């Protein structure tokens, strides 16, 4: 039997893991210009407060 990871399993109707949501939000900010080039990303404490 093949081993599976959480990404291999269907997650229909569930929220993605927190680390994935944080990464997605950071990437979106970089892509849409909310986070300008060269600006420091928020620290762990600030991210924890947000999420």
Describe this structure in words.
It is a single chain. The protein is mainly alpha-helical. Helix content is about 45%, strand content about 0%. The protein has a domain at about 15-35 and about 40-50. The protein has helices spanning about 20-30, 45-50. The longest helix has 15 residues, at about 20-30.
Concise structural overview:
The chain is mainly alpha-helical and 51 residues long. Helix content is 43%, strand content 0%.
Mean pLDDT: 83
Q: Describe the main β-sheet briefly.
A: none
Q: Briefly note the structural class of the backbone.
A: mainly alpha
Straight-line distance between termini? 37 Å
Low-confidence stretches: none
Our count of helices gives 2
- Write down the overall geometry: flat
* Range of helix content: 40-55%
Q: N-to-C SSE series? A: HH
* Percent of residues in β-strands: under 5%
Rg, Cα atoms, Å: 15 Å
| DSSP strand tally | 0
